[in-house]
Amino acid sequence: MTTLSTIPVPLPELTAPSVWPASAVTARGGDVSVGGVPLAELAERYGTPVYVLDEAEVRARAAAWRRALPDADVVYAAKAFLCRAMVDWMEQEGVGLDVCSAGELELAASRGFPADRIVLHGNAKSPRDLRTALRLGVGRIVIDSECEIARLAAHVPGPEAQQVMVRVLPGIAAGGHHKISTGAEGQKFGLSIAGGDAEDAVARILGQPRLELVGLHMHLGSQIASAEPYARGVRRVVAFMARIRDRYGVTLPELDAGGGFAVAQLPGEPAPSPAAYGRRINDALVRACAEFDLPLPRLTVEPGRSIVATAGVALYRVLAVKRTGGRVFAAVDGGMSDNPRPALYGARYTVRMVGRPSAAPMRATTVVGRHCEAGDVLAESVELPEDLRPGDVLAVPASGAYQVSMASGYNLTGRPPVVAVAGGRSRLLVRRETFEDHRGRDVGL
Ligand SMILES: *Cc1c(COP(=O)(O)O)cnc(C)c1O
């Protein structure tokens, strides 16, 4: 019999913008289900920690970006999270891939992802990165320093030229944290427009017959919760395109506005929709091109987090509950080895107990990992029931981006598995890292 308390209802956090996938609903017995599968069941079946990825949410976010900018190329920033299924989903949704290593490239190639829809980035591309990119025939290589221009040109097999872009620094500070702010002067990425480095690189590339300069690229940073920095950046890049036309007689046909579109990490945080970002960026591009009398270049955007973050939910089991120094700590079976973001940039999360009902009052609890660092904190002072105990399952939404992809081997705990949910079913995408995996790499004495 269905009682009121077992009728699935959207989670209370589901006021836009939400930190949960759209499919998240309350389920029987104090649980939450995602993609039609109860989270506690997934914790039981696959063990913890485990990362759950809602396939429909990933696809819907990718599709929303395509709808937001129908005339642009949408390129998924693979470093947010990549596995073979993800490569297939992006291919099927008509989205390209932005990669920054031979490894990411090889994974995409292993699924037959069309190489001409791949963009290779990197401030320090290794010989192997460049060789792999040229062998597979990636569509665009984004130049990030002068010294890679001649090196790349020397390896282009020809007769066709390799299409390249130049990553320019529009000189705009934006983003959620200085460690993820990449559009301002004085950090390691890009070539300064103001300082003349960008123009030097353009001149050098134009002098290389094996390279074809097709456009300019900017990437302002990450967790940029307003479209305004993009609008300003696009105008500066278009102004620079006009200067290139005036000085070199070349009209560049493409502009890549990068990624960095914010998602809500906490309920109610600002996170413009892809449509809102798209409108503002497109509008700025049209205006700037009119101002500088340039034809509209083809636009590219590179959302990473925006496509995958809210599709992911991390599940942990509580190992210990401790009250000390006037605070309550809940220690779980994962931590900074699967999610370094709180320690790296002070990222914040909500946490919810799943899998059993509790009528206990809520209290501020700090959720910490199991690793040997006092900074191994997953979520500071979140509301959890007072009767939280070892064995309970905790769910951390908005965990799809830059967690599994940044996971480490710290303490040899083993990187967690990734499980896809769709239509009431689950399947393993990436298995858990085992002790044998570690032992197998340890080959000398
Ligand atoms: C990291 C990165 C992105 C994606 O950033 P998100 O914050 O995940 O959207 C896009 N382009 C480049 C060049 C990047 O380095």
TrEMBL record:
What biological-process GO terms show up in the record? lysine biosynthetic process via diaminopimelate
The chemistry this enzyme catalyses reads:
meso-2,6-diaminopimelate + H(+) = L-lysine + CO2
The species this protein was found in: Streptomyces inusitatus
Query: How is this protein named in the record?
Result: Diaminopimelate decarboxylase
Function, in words: Specifically catalyzes the decarboxylation of meso-diaminopimelate (meso-DAP) to L-lysine.
Alphabetized NCBIfam families for the sequence: lysA
Positions carrying N6-(pyridoxal phosphate)lysine: 79
According to its UniProt record, the EC number is: 4.1.1.20
Q: Where is the active site?
A: 372 (proton donor)
MF terms from GO for this chain are: diaminopimelate decarboxylase activity; pyridoxal phosphate binding
Question: Which pathway or pathways does this protein act in?
Answer: Amino-acid biosynthesis; L-lysine biosynthesis via DAP pathway; L-lysine from DL-2,6-diaminopimelate: step 1/1
**For this UniProt entry, which segments traverse the membrane?**
none
Q: How does it assemble?
A: Homodimer.
From the broadest rank down, the organism's phylogenetic lineage runs: Bacteria, Bacillati, Actinomycetota, Actinomycetes, Kitasatosporales
User: Which residues are noted in the entry as pyridoxal 5'-phosphate-binding?
Assistant: 260, 302-305, 402
Cofactors named for this entry: pyridoxal 5'-phosphate
Sorted UniProt keywords: Amino-acid biosynthesis, Decarboxylase, Lyase, Lysine biosynthesis, Pyridoxal phosphate
Q: Where does substrate bind?
A: 305, 341, 345, 373, 402
Major enzyme class: lyase
Q: Which residues form the Orn/DAP/Arg decarboxylase 2 N-terminal domain?
A: 56-309
Protein family per UniProt: Belongs to the Orn/Lys/Arg decarboxylase class-II family. LysA subfamily.
